[in-house]
Amino acid sequence: MTQQLRCADLRGGDILLKLNAGSLTNRIINTGQKLAGASNPDVVHAGILFDSTYIIESSGPGLIASDLRVKDRPYAYYVFRCTNTNVAAGAATCAKMMFDIQGRTGNLTYTAAGAAASAFGASGKPKTAGDMDALLDRILQGKSTPFFCSQFVVFVYQFVAEQNGLSAATVFDYSDAKSPPSKVAASLVANALFVEAGYLVPNER
Fold it and tell me: How many helices and strands, by DSSP H and E, does the chain display?
């Protein structure tokens, strides 16, 4: 049985999937995913934990770090954990590095258009290792690089997988640009590299 978690139970690299909390943005994402025939339309947002309390996520202001005990306290999340500890730790480090770059440049912006388009059309293939290296170089150079929430999660995990000798498709077998939150949820449930660690209840941390 899936168990209720608190922050003390969380680990860096955990993927948090936020459930529809009723905001206008959440309702729009939920409706769009329903129209696209998604199997998990109530999963409307995704982020990566840096440690046991801070989630790094792409939202309206761009790439941000939010304290689960404060700003994100009212929200419910499913928590998925990568069973490859090197990949999980690398994902936490990579996410934090990108957040630090955002702090210096402000160029890791949020793309609402990308989020809207992600639920429709063909899934596409993951970026090659070379393409991901080139994108990371662009980020390191401070160039404008937009992400939407679940695209950020997929890119980070695909990049770190390649760095650990795994193919990007091992973690997510589609393009990061075609990864709405509902699709990420379905992928995590079906992927043996991840386990559902539990869930966070609103206002219980």
Answer: 7, 6
**Which of 121, 130, 109 shows the shortest CA–CA distance to 64?**
109
Class of 7-200 in CATH: alpha beta
The residue written with tokens 């509902």 in the block is 182
Q: Decide if 168 contacts 131 (C-beta within 8 A).
A: no
Q: What is the pTM of this model?
A: 0.96
Compute how many other C-beta atoms are within 10 angstroms of the C-beta atom of residue 17: 26
User: Over the stretch 67-115, which tens digit does the pLDDT of each residue have?
Assistant: 999 999 999 999 999 999 999 999 999 999 999 999 999 999 999 999 9
Q: How many CB atoms lie within 10 A of CB 150?
A: 30
Using CB atoms within 10 Å of the CB of residue 78, give its burial: 0 to 12 exposed, 13 to 18 middle, 19+ buried. buried
**Domain extent listing, the chain:** 7-200
Other residues' Cβ atoms within 10 Å of the Cβ of residue 143: 12
